[in-house]
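Data deposition worksheet. Section B asks for the primary sequence of the deposited chain exactly as it was used as input, without tags or linkers unless they were present during the calculation. Section C holds the resulting structure in token form. Section D is free text for depositor observations; keep each observation to a single sentence. Incomplete worksheets are returned to the depositor.
Section A, Depositor: J.P.
Section B:
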Amino acid sequence: MDKYILAIDAGTTSSRAIIFDRNGQSIGVSQYEFTQHFPKEGWVEHDAIEIWKTQLLAIKEVLKNNGINASQIHSMGITNQRETTILWDRKTGIPVHKAIVWQDRRTASLCQALEKEGKADLFYQKTGLLLDAYFSGTKIKWILDNNPKLRIQAEKGELAFGTVDSWLIWNLTEGKIHVTDVTNASRTLLFNIHTLEWDQELLDALDVPKALLPKVVSCSEKVGDVSRLFLKNSIPICGIAGDQQAALFGQMCIQTGDLKNTYGTGCFCIMNTGNKPVQSKNNMLTTIGYQINGEVYYALEGSVFIAGAAVQWLRDQLGIISSAPDIELLAETVENNGGITFITAMAGLGAPYWDPHATASIFGITRGTEKGHIARATLEAIAMRTKEIISAMQKDANITFKSLKVDGGGSTNNLLMQIQSNLLGVDVIRPKITETTALGAAFFAGLSSGYWPSIESLSNIWKVDKKFNPIQSEQSQKIIDNWDQCIKKVINS
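Section C:
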């Protein structure tokens, strides 16, 4: 009987389940979108119960649709939207507040207050992170500060905190297992990336009770089994990693200096820096890339909060495209951007600016502006924000990159990839398997459960689909120059 690996990809907009075979090929995918809640300006929330229900549906559906029994699943790996914060009651398993999503900006003023208190360096030295509303720690503090009853419960150990990985594992094991992995822990502002422990000084600074926190494990080890209640057969859970770190491993960026960019809701660029953390002087994040076989590999990361989300905005708010892939065809109806520059700061600006108050702007609109110009400028914005991050990383790591590995939904857009290559002036390489986030989770699980014998065996699975070579033109330089002028106006406004 054939055996497979099941990967759970718990994203920002949907719950996905993907089955992989020994060749790393996806043989079945199931996906359910869930509701995005925007209760106030700058606030973004999810219903954690809905995340769990849609995820379970996706798991059951992908098995059923592909005629695979749960007994054929060798092990399960989980990857997830990071930083999104869920608090729930340990007895009932019911969340005590809506999940506060990584994009949520409600704690921006709290972060600024901590900065004024001189706490920024403390957090940076221990976590590699900047004080920004992006991360989980201030979100936990906000929930507890806004409900004194919850704070009392938290201090008594009656509540549990977790990112989406923890929440799903808790539910899949019927509340028996409360864990997270080092990559998700490293995005909380509460975890010391040097000692690999929850840090009491950081907990005190944010007034977060330690009793809330999950046990921290490596990315590739067995943590528990899925309850038979859900699938009739128990499946070992053997891999966990935050989505971007999973993509790093799925892309086989296992050498120092290897670099990948994921084009999803946001854009996330990560470079493997090896066994030693590199402290950024250019507002990049130092984070844990992955931990496997007792070895920790560090990474530099730059985050773009809005990438695919800008395309969704064109679809849902403006209605100029009916589906996300349509943007490529629309952008190709014009030869250039028609003088349009779109600064896509709908959720503030991440690296290297870290301006939570920046808002989006479209510059250069005239009577001659067409839908195609706006579509093209949107793709250029995604590529320019990535370029800014990679330029900063090059300075930090003292490395000149020769190529960029890409993945995520946006990487299937050939026009975007060509624009990216043109603006960077390097080859952009897309693998045959673009589901690299889920693949990374599968790799972590399969290594732990013995499905694959070694990391070397995984390197043979990774293959190139298409290489985009840079085309030098005056147009590319014009895009860069206009961008540099326009983004200054957004930051200074």
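Section D:
The two ends are 63 Å apart (CA to CA).
The CA atoms of residues 172 and 452 lie 24 Å apart.
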